[in-house]
UniProtKB/TrEMBL annotation:
SUPFAM superfamilies: Phosphoglycerate mutase-like. GO terms for cellular component: cytoplasm. The lineage of its organism: Bacteria, Bacillati, Bacillota, Clostridia, Eubacteriales. One of its GO terms (molecular function) is ATP binding. It comes from Desulforamulus profundi. It comes from the Bacteria. The active site is at H10 (tele-phosphohistidine intermediate), E83 (proton donor/acceptor). Substrate binds at R9, H10, G11, E12, T13, A14, W15, N16, R59. This is Alpha-ribazole phosphatase. PANTHER family: BROAD-SPECIFICITY PHOSPHATASE YOR283W-RELATED (PTHR48100), HISTIDINE PHOSPHATASE FAMILY PROTEIN-RELATED (PTHR48100:SF1). The keyword Nucleotide-binding does not apply. Pfam families: His_Phos_1 (PF00300). The keyword Isomerase applies.
Amino acid sequence: MKTGIYLVRHGETAWNAGGKFQGHSDIPLTERGREQARTLAARLSSLKIDAFYSSDLSRARETAEILAEPHQGTVYYLPELREINFGQWEGLTFKEIAEAYGELSTQWWTTPLTTQIPAGERLQQVVDRCTRAITDILNRHAGETVVVAAHGGVIRIIVGIALGLDLNFFWKLRLDNVSLTILKYHGSDKAILELFNDTCHLPDES
């Protein structure tokens, strides 16, 4: 009995467009982000989807609500699916963090599982809460198809755990806004990655 988990990164926000770390900051979708979500909703509209889950942050929440609308589905919000809490780094760009935090910034890119972000989280804390959330979803929806709208860091972690990767390198997995990633679980501890970071539903803006 297979359980399909359709992982969707939220649509674009103004901070995405500006290259800023968002974390727990509750930044809403841009109109472009909403349109991105609508294109994926159209792609998924003909599928039988049994449940919709989302992080409780507005950018993921609204993405999930747009995806659920064609199915008249209810979205369940889980704080455990929030992005990493980047603490004092939220609102800053990669360059600004590197300049202001130097060695600590370097540690984050090499050993994020054990690096404590100022006023934020270690990656291991996010791993623990994401694992609880996905395990609960799998237990509730065995044999069903579930859409989970979340964040880049969260989806990288879920995929990394499923594939047995060293999560100190989770950031090497690219996740675009409103990309679709599909994991098929056999029970709660065996998963096959069927699709990753797919954006064929989005217009080519190159």
